[in-house]
Amino acid sequence: MESIFAAINSVFAFIGPLSDFLWDFPTNFSWYRNIPILGNFSFAIILLLGSGIFFSFKLGFMQVTYFKKGVHILTEKRSVETGISPLAAFFLSSAMRVGPGNIIGVTGAIAVGGPGALFWMWVSAFFGMAVAYMEGVLAQIFKEKKDDEFVGGLPFYGRRLLGNKVWIGIFLSVLYILYALCCLPAQGFNVVSSIGQMAEIVTGQTIASGSVFYYIIGGLVILLTALIAFGGIRKVTKWTDKMVPIMAVLYVVVVLALVIINLGRIPYFFGAVFSGAFKPQAFFGGVFGTVLAQGVKRGLMSNEAGQGTITMSAAASDAKHPCEQGLLASIGVFLDTIVICTLTGFVVVMAHCWTGADAESWAALDKLPKFTASIAELTPGTGLNAVMTFLVTLCFGLFAFTCLLGMISFSEIAANRIRKDKVCINVVRCVALVVAAFGILCNIAGLELGNLWAFSDLGNILIVYFNVPIVYVGAKYVFKATRHYKKGDGTPFTSAVIGRDDCAFWDEKAKKADAEK
């Protein structure tokens, strides 16, 4: 088996360098690097952060002024006939956003850029909330009804905004499906490895990666994933509705407990973050660029604002107005980065393992062991160490499993832009399961296919480069929809509101409401 994996790695050896080139462009050219200040930032950073700043001003900073309204929408109890509720859609999107990157990503960012990296995560997430709002509104405006569900997202609004060309919708659908297929092996790997680590903590024994235990666990994970994914989007949301709150609350409680135990280290945390963020070598030396670019590239931030990869969940919601789901998409970024990633940052920064006597050995560890090493530093010589490590590993496994479900579900929705028959949908589901199983086999073999998984980095940047320009094309419609929403005069949202005639669902909904009066 090792020879097979080695062959696959060698075949895809060019993917990593290609991905790095696209992410770093044009900083990989000396003429650009020599430009003062600007030369530190790649086009991807400028595109993402610049778009967030632009949309924030154009929307009147809705991520702040309408944050309370978004929370109110989340807490509303609604019964829906078609699609899923806004809350269910929020949980489904959070299943993708809140992933392993919230733990290993932040740890890696701080390892590379120091504590100041966390501050720039906050900045980029704040403006990213505006981009997520834009994507969510577009997904709602151009969603389509399929039986008792809604389908939409990037492949759908991309097609409508670019001349309603069939090939554009198919291209964007294939692009997303390929992106998901490239990410699924890592999620399958993470789910099984976390279960194995929890078993080792409980038993106190090392379990060989190729043992029967891992084969059984791998088979059960694939079986459970298949049972949920083949039930359609509504069945998936029934699971994510339960798992997302549990994993988020559990992680918050565990980290807050660590913070309370180490109250004396809180001043160090804030001092390290803010002083690190504003040191000249941090700002002008590229740490800001490293945090933002590597955050999306490695799933460090994991909120995916600007990629359009979570817009399928926004479209699936039976919202009263397109802007409602845009607000929830914005809150999703807040939950992911400002809350969950910050909690991870508390642990890593307060432990500050990279500055102590064990700094050299800490630097050599992989990202998850770095985080668990930080937990050990905050609970030295106590029984809490094993308990906290177990609970964090459990959260890590849940994060990975919900990502697994989300990617398969969103691939299914994207496939509807290609063909809406069951054969096409089931083929996509089966391929996704096989690819996830491949990641599990990598775990059992004790191997990590870095070159193959670099495909996800490539998929990320390609989707950003396609999605963000499309969002700009549709921006005028989002702005018009937002003005209509802010006006709040009770008039229904229709195609006429944004100056189009092809928002079929919203026009039919308005006609139905008039007929019932």
Any idea what the shape is? globular
Largest sheet: 2 strands, antiparallel
Order of helices and strands: HHHHHHHHHEEHHHHHHHHHHHHHHH
Number of self-contained structural domains: 1
SSE-based structural type: mainly alpha
Strand content bin:
under 5%
Report the CATH topology name. Amino acid/polyamine transporter I
Q: Uncertain spans, ≥5 residues at pLDDT below 50? A: 280-287, 291-301
CATH class: Mainly Alpha
Q: Largest sheet, order of strands side by side? A: 1-2
Q: Which bin fits the share of residues in helices? A: over 70%
Mean pLDDT: 80
Straight-line distance between termini: 67 Å
What Rg is obtained from the alpha carbons, in whole angstroms?
22 Å
Given the structure, what is the number of helices? 24
- Tell me how many strands there are: 2
Provide the CATH architecture. Up-down Bundle
Describe the structure.
Helix content is 74%, strand content 1%. The protein is mostly helical and 517 residues long. The protein has a single domain, classed as Amino acid/polyamine transporter I (Up-down Bundle), CATH 1.20.1740. Strands 1-2 form a two-stranded antiparallel sheet. About 4% of the residues have low confidence.
